[in-house]
Design a protein that fits this description.
Radius of gyration: 21 Å
GO molecular function: glutamate-1-semialdehyde 2,1-aminomutase activity
EC number: 5.4.3.8
Cofactor: pyridoxal 5'-phosphate
Family: Belongs to the class-III pyridoxal-phosphate-dependent aminotransferase family. HemL subfamily.
InterPro entries: 4pyrrol_synth_GluAld_NH2Trfase, Aminotrans_3, Aminotrans_3_PPA_site, PyrdxlP-dep_Trfase, PyrdxlP-dep_Trfase_major, PyrdxlP-dep_Trfase_small
Bound molecules: pyridoxal-5'-phosphate
Largest sheet: 7 strands, mixed
Mean pLDDT: 95
Number of strands: 13
Length: 435
């Protein structure tokens, strides 16, 4: 059975939304611009399934862009949320649940000695950068093209994610002065890094990198690249910030750090987290070396704050999610991801379509191109139109992929035999539609 491309109830809601919300969405990639068609408005979600307002069911391979690692409305997470909510929604004082969540993070990621909780990954990067600038007394930040760290002014130069989707080189509204404090380098390019530091090393506060990039599609660091980041930053007295907002607690119990291990020369100085650690609620964090974190207000001179930071309901959801992410869950995620990716590859092979699948733990993305993708230029050199047709072929057959060729596919531990069968059954038709 296939669904029609028209989705009347979603189309009606989109029209209503457009009257009061720019483009009808609260985050750009949701608008389906790069794949065309009507974004589906969801009514509810349970386990691996999304149900839209037209009453259609989809297997979910977006997982709210990462957080829903256990599937939707997991009964034990729901119970934790109910319990926390019954105790009050927000106190504006410290409370125990946020301490427990911080302890869980510190326990899982060894180099993180202390963390501050915030509300989004964007806030986490913004705060980590301010802290690095405060610690070093320098202002320049190095980032890599195709890496996304949230919509922080100075980090919107050559960012991935929605910006990759829209092929915007930059965002309007970012002052030249903010962009001037950012050096954008190609990912996986050690000589470019060395040149930048040779020229401006004394001004550079930090290098921020996705621990393993996932916002230009999955583009793992080549062997030795993370080591080089550590070596060069240390040589020049700059900090290394590892953005694990997407990979944290997803690639492994301790994120990409747990898979790759500490770089030669020592762990990154600061980490950022989000997505999985909020269990679907707005919670994120930044943390790392205790001597650096000690510079935060009120003890230190670097100001950082948040009315809802450490929110007890969000903390309860995050903590329940992390505690349910056992080694068995990570093993299951890896198994399910490989089953799906193998089937995609087999179907594309059969149809003679050039493709490349790249991995970070159970995160993977399917590039419509031949050959390894090492950086943003490689990632942009793919057949995005073919992806768009493939996306709609899957959607028609009840599988919701990320609506962009530059995104990661996120599996959940809730994907059961029925959901996986539905994905496998959709593939031949969707690949045929993509040709
Ligand atoms: C999603 C993401 C962010 C931004 O997080 P928000 O919660 O959307 O602000 C930052 N860094 C990375 C690597 C991300 O994937």
């Amino acid at each position: 059975m296939t669904y029609p491309d028209q989705a009347p109830a979603s189309a009606a809601l989109l029209e209503r939304a457009r009257a009061v919300i720019p483009s009808g969405v609260n985050s750009p990639v949701r608008a389906f611009r790069s794949v065309g068609g009507t974004p589906r408005f969801m009514r509810s979600a349970s386990g691996p399934w999304l149900t839209d307002v037209d009453g259609r069911r989809y297997v979910d391979l977006v997982g709210s862009w990462g957080p829903m690692i256990l599937g939707h409305a997991h009964p034990q997470v729901l119970e934790a949320v109910r319990e926390a909510a019954a105790d009050g929604f927000s106190f504006g004082t410290p409370s125990e649940r946020e301490v427990a969540l911080a302890e869980e993070i510190v326990t899982r990621v060894a180099p993180v000695e202390s963390v501050r909780l915030v509300n989004s990954g964007t806030e986490a990067s913004m705060s980590a950068i301010r802290l690095a600038r405060g610690f070093t007394g320098r202002s320049v930040v190095v980032k890599f093209a195709g890496c996304y760290h949230g919509h922080v002014d100075s980090l919107l130069a050559a960012a991935g994610s929605g910006l990759a989707t829209f092929a915007l080189p930059d965002s309007a509204g970012v002052p030249a002065s903010a962009a001037a404090e950012t050096i954008v380098l190609p990912y996986n390019d050690v000589p470019a890094l060395e040149v930048a530091f040779a020229e401006r090393g004394e001004q550079i506060a930090a290098v921020i990198t996705e621990a393993c990039p996932g916002n230009m599609g999955v583009v793992p660091p080549l062997p030795g690249f993370t080591d080089a980041l550590r070596r060069v930053t240390a040589e020049h007295g700059a900090l290394l910030i590892s953005d694990e907002v997407m990979t944290g607690f997803r690639c492994s119990a301790s994120g990409w750090f747990g898979l790759e291990g500490p770089p030669a020369g020592g762990a990154p100085d600061l980490f950022t987290f989000g997505k999985v650690m909020g269990g679907g609620f707005p919670a994120a964090a930044f943390g790392g070396r205790a001597d650096v974190m000690a510079l935060l207000a009120p003890e230190g001179p670097v100001y950082q704050a948040g009315t809802l930071s450490g929110n007890p309901v969000a903390s309860a959801a995050g903590l329940a999610t992390l505690r349910l992410c056992t080694p068995e869950v990570y093993a299951r995620l890896d198994e399910v991801a490989h089953t799906i990716a193998d089937a995609v590859a087999a179907e594309l092979d059969r149809a003679g379509v050039a493709h490349r699948i790249q991995w970070a733990g159970s995160m993977f993305s399917v590039f419509h191109r031949a050959g390894q993708v090492r950086d943003y230029a490689d990632a942009q050199d793919q057949d995005t139109a073919a992806f768009g047709r493939f996306f709609h072929g899957m959607l028609r057959r009840g599988v919701h992929l990320p609506p962009s060729a530059f995104e990661t596919w996120f599996v959940s531990a809730a994907l059961d035999d029925e959901a996986i069968s539905k994905i496998l059954a959709a593939l031949p038709g969707a690949v045929a539609d993509s040709l």
